[in-house]
Amino acid sequence: MELAPRPVWQLLLLFLGLSTGAVLNWPEEQGKEVWDYVTVRTDAHMFWWLYYATNPCKNFTELPLVMWLQGGPGGSSTGFGNFEEIGPLDSDLKPRRTTWLQSASLLFVDNPVGTGFSYVNKSNAYAKDLATVASDMMVLLKTFFDGHKEFQTIPFYIFSESYGGKMAAGIALELYKAIQQGTIQCNFAGVALGDSWISPVDSVLSWGPYLYSMSLLDDQGLAEVSQVAEQVLDAINKGLYREATDLWGKAEMVVEQNTDGVNFYNILTKSSPMSAVESSLEFTESHLVRLFQRHVRHLQQNALSQLMNGPIRKKLKIIPEDCTWGGQANNVFVNMEGDFMKPVISIVDELLEAGINVTIYNGQLDLIVDTMGQEAWVRKLKWAELPKFNQLRWKPLYSDPESLETSAFVKSYKNLAFYWILRAGHMVPSDQGDMTLKMMRLVTQQEEGGPGWRV
Ligand SMILES: *[C@@H]1O[C@H](CO)[C@@H](O)[C@H](O)[C@H]1NC(C)=O
Ligand SMILES: *[C@@H]1O[C@H](CO)[C@@H](O)[C@H](O)[C@H]1NC(C)=O
Ligand SMILES: *[C@@H]1O[C@H](CO)[C@@H](O)[C@H](O)[C@H]1NC(C)=O
C-alpha cells in the first residue's frame, strides 16, 4: 500500500486529542513516504517503511538507499531506529538535526517477523534461525525492488546495530547470491555492522578486561567475570548454544553484581532502576524473559510504545486492529534462543571474499558488544588481506572540522573498514549523531576519506 503525503492540517485533525500526553505537532516539511506489509511466508507478515531522501540540493535518485536493521532480536527498526536514532523525526515528532535522510533514502524493516508492526498468525511461524531470517528478507527485498524500480539502480547499503549486525551479515550474503542469480534487481553496494553480534563469545570474554581497565571491576570481580565467561566459551565449543545463552545471562548478572549495576549500553551512563531490581533476583527458569526484558524492552520503552501504538498506527492506517507494535517481540527473542550465541565470523569472511564492502563500527562506551570483542573476532578472519589491514595505522576523524576534539578513528583496506566511534555507547547514532552521519556519508562515498582512503 502506498499513501501520498497528506496535508499537515489533515494530520493534525487526525491526531488532536489522541496523543497520550504531550501534544504532537507534525513538522511542516515532510518528504515522500511509503509503507506496506509483505507476506514473506504462510502466516508471516513483515512491515517496512520507506522515506525518500530529502536533500535541498539533490534528487533522491542521486543519493543512496540505506536499509536499517535493529537488534534484539525483536527490536523494531520502524520504531527505535527511526524515532530514536536516524529517522527524520525524534520520538517527540520534532525534526532530528542529524537525520540520515538528508544524505540517503531510508528503508526501515521490522524483522524478524513478529517484531514491531510485523506479525505472525501462528506461533510456529516465528523464525528460529538466521537462515530463515535471511530468506524471509529476500522475499521482502524482491517484492520491494520489483515494486520500486526507481531504486533498482541506486546504491543500496545495509546498516545495522547489535543483533541486527548478525542478521545484516546473513542477509547481505543471501542478497549477493540472489543478485548473481538474477532473482533480485538491486545495486548492492555494501554492509555496515554496528556494535554487531557477530561473535558473541568474543564479547563475553572481553567484558572482564574491558571493565577492569575502566575501573569498573576489582581483582575479585575480574576473576568472577572471567570464570563465567570461560563457562560460556566451553558451552559454545561444545555446540551447546541454548546453554550458552543461559550462561550469557548468568555472566551479565555477575557483571551487574560486581559493577554496582553498570549500564551495558553505555558504561558511563547509569542504567535504569529496573536492572538494579532484576540483579537482585535469583537466576531462574524465566531467564529468557528476563533477558528479553533487558535487551528488547529498552528498545520499546513506554513513550515509544505509546507513540507507535497511538499516532503512528493512526497515520499508517494498514496495521491490523489486533496487532500491537511490540506485542510479539518477546516471542521473537525466545524463538531465536538456539541461534543467539552462534558466531557468524565465517559469513563475514564470505562477504569479504566476494568483494562486498564491509564496514565495522563500534561505540567506545558499549559494554554488551565492546570494541575489544569486535577486534578479537576480526583477528580470526581468514580473509587473505587481513595482515595488510592489520599493518595499517588508523586515522583520526573530526565531526566538526573546526574542533580539535577527535570524534573517531578509521582504518580501511580494500573492502574492509573499521570505525572506532568515541564517546558513543551501543546506540551509536543516538550518542554521536554528527559523527555517525559523517560516517554514513563516508561509507556511501559521499565524502572523501571513506573506505577508499589509504595511508
Ligand atoms: C527526481 O528524479 C525522478 C526520477 O528520475 C524524476 O521523476 C523527478 O522529476 C526528479 N525530481 C526533481 C525535483 O528533480
Ligand atoms: C493474522 O493476524 C492479524 C494480526 O493479529 C489479524 O488481524 C488477522 O486477522 C490474522 N489473520 C488470520 C487469517 O488469522
Ligand atoms: C567499496 O570500497 C572500495 C574501496 O574502499 C571503494 O573504492 C568503492 O568505491 C566502494 N564501493 C562502493 C559501492 O561503495
From TrEMBL:
Pfam families found in the cross-reference section: Peptidase_S10
Keyword Glycoprotein: yes
Coiled coil stretches, renumbered: none
GO biological process: blood vessel diameter maintenance; negative regulation of blood pressure; proteolysis
Cellular component GO terms held in the UniProt record: extracellular region
Record's keyword terms, sorted: Carboxypeptidase, Glycoprotein, Hydrolase, Protease, Secreted, Signal
InterPro entries recorded: AB_hydrolase_fold, Peptidase_S10, Ser_caboxypep_ser_AS
Leader sequence segment: 1-21
Predominant subcellular localization, coarse grouping: secreted
Domain of life of the source: Eukaryota
Subcellular location(s) per record: Secreted
Function: May be involved in vascular wall and kidney homeostasis.
Name of this protein: Carboxypeptidase
Underlying gene: SCPEP1
